[in-house]
Amino acid sequence: MTEPILAEGLVRKFGDLVAVDGIDLCVAQGEVFGFLGPNGAGKSTTVRMLTTLLSPSAGTARVAGYDVVTQAAEVRRVIGVALQDAAIDPIMTGRELLKLQAVLHGIPRRISRERGDELLSRVGLSAAADRRVGTYSGGMRRRLDLALALIHEPRVLFLDEPTTGLDPTSRMALWEEVRRLNGEFGTTVLLTTQYLEEADQLAGRIAIIDGGRIVRQGEPEALKDAVGSPTLRVDVDPDHLTRAAEVLQKFGEIRPARSGRLAIGLEGGAARLAEVVRALDAAGVVLNHMELDAPSLDDVFAEATGRRLEGAEEPPAPVEVGG
Fold first, then answer.
1. Percent helix, strand and coil across the chain, each rounded to 5?
2. Residues in CB range of 284: below 8 A, 6 or more apart
3. DSSP string of 14-81?
């Protein structure tokens, strides 16, 4: 069976700016594939090429077996797209927008009505179906956008940062709908995100993109396992940063950390925490905070790029010293 998404050497330039620099992607049938990276990394530009909204500067891409350049119309008929900056008419109601979308796809009125009611129910908008979209919250608009993308039962669904700006409850509700789509209907999903937890929760495989290039690709757990030792992060008084770094590097390789914080891959893991604390104390380092975490996707990104993912959400700290 032809892969739902296949890209080879895909490039997109804007003048002298290379937004996407020769990426290769292969997404399998029924897979939720995560495309993870910071703002400006090339995620949305890639999606716009795969959905025929932008022409590649070089390379090739096929979606559902169709070439995105020479068979753009065929591609558009079999995909669903929910873009981060999609414009939804605020004057129309949710039900009216679904009817309009069905007409655009040539779906008979009886089928479109049944399918529209089903989708409104699935995304939790039945009670708001006849309200003007201008009265919807951000989370409601995102769920409506997902319903609009699904009205024609697409073979491949593209979600471009679908939960950016949503509150935690709305984000989790959308996650659940993506899981249901994939589990019940086998919908192939390409999800772009800058949220580590989102990629970890939803994607069976991910590609990490930075500066227009894919720097890591594989299953999340395998990528994290490849990082190796757990990451020890410490916060110390600013005057003690240099001294603390000299101590910590004896316990493992220095890893990228946010400003004012130090991090290492702690060889030996939790069994060496007490030893680290004693060494810092002996060096006169005032320790304000310490945490030890299993390798995360942020660690994968840091190992690949030399910096932390901007805006990445850190896990809760299981170990604290001092206040």
1. 40, 25, 35
2. 240, 243
3. ETTEEEEEEEEEEE-TT-EEEEE--TTSSHHHHHHHHTTSS--SEEEEEETTEETTTTHHHHHHHEEE
Q: What is the pLDDT of residue 186?
A: 87
Instruction: Supply φ then ψ for residue 263, to 5 degrees.
Output: -145, 145
> In the chain, how long is the greatest CA-to-CA distance?
77
pLDDT tens by residue, 100-142: 999 988 999 889 999 999 999 888 899 999 999 999 988 888 8
Specify the residue for token string 């395998």: 222
CA atoms of 250 and 272, how far apart (whole Å): 12
Strand partners, 213: 210
The residue among 250, 204, 227 whose CA lies nearest residue 297 is 227
- CB-CB neighbours of 267 under 10 Å: 14
* End-to-end Cα distance, the chain: 58
Instruction: List phi, psi (to 5°) of 284.
Output: 75, 20
Q: CB-based contacts of 204: which residues, under 8 Å, 6+ apart?
A: 31, 32, 33, 219
Per-residue DSSP letter, 169: H
pLDDT band of residue 317 (cuts 50, 70, 90) is very low
Amino acid occupying residue 29: Q
Whole-angstrom Cα distance, residue 242 to residue 236? 10
Contact in structure between 201 and 265 (CB atoms under 8 Å)? no
Contacts of 57 (CB under 8 A, 6+ apart): 11, 12, 13
Q: What is the DSSP letter of 310?
A: T
- Gap between the Cα atoms of 254 and 260, Å rounded: 14
